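Next up, a specimen:

>
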Amino acid sequence: MTIIIGHVLDPHHRPEVEASVYIISAPISMPDIAQLTDEQGRFTLSAPVPGRYTLGVRSDRWGATQIIYETCGEDELVIEVQFTLTEGTV
């Protein structure tokens, strides 16, 4: 099992607090579980088997984004997700 240690940032490189983080797709069936980022924009998830995962992140202010990552059975994998500015956001 790989522990995914993540950090979510807003478009200005600041931690995104209370963003919802969830698994969209995985190599095996996963329960529909979401968690919120902490005050530093951090989250921790488990990837039970090696393979390709799609992670979704949603923020009330910045909308939704996705990141695809692959685990190879390592103990930990550190990822960073950053929202981008879209037209009409500041």
